Amino acid sequence: TRASGDYDEKSDFDFLVFSKDKAFPKKAVLEIGQAVNLRVLTLSEWRGLDRAFKQSVQKNHVVLYGSGLVV
Question: What is the pLDDT of residues 22-36, one digit of tens each?
Fold first, then answer.
């Protein structure tokens, strides 16, 4: 909801991280100081997800680091 602009003070942050080995320093995200929903995926896991979820992410995503999404 934050990426789409439809949020309020109770909204959490949703992070989707792509990693070759699913290793990610979760502590870095937890230091934001607000509620965080973190999901770490490999590219093969991303490709296997349901189409509606991927379309929603593609429509509303904000890249914080790295390149764009792989369809």
Answer: 777 666 666 666 777
Residue 4 has pLDDT above 90, yes or no: no
Query: Of the candidates 43, 44, 60, which has an alpha carbon nearest to the alpha carbon of residue 52?
Result: 60
**How far is it, in rounded angstroms, from Cα 22 to Cα 40?**
6
Q: What is the pTM of this model?
A: 0.67
Contact 35, 15 (CB under 8 A): no
Per-residue H/E/C for the chain: CCCCCCCCCCCCEEEEEECCCCCCCHHHHHCCCCCEEEEEECHHHHHCCCHHHHHHHHHHCCCCCCCCCCC
Phi/psi at 9 (5° precision): -65, -15
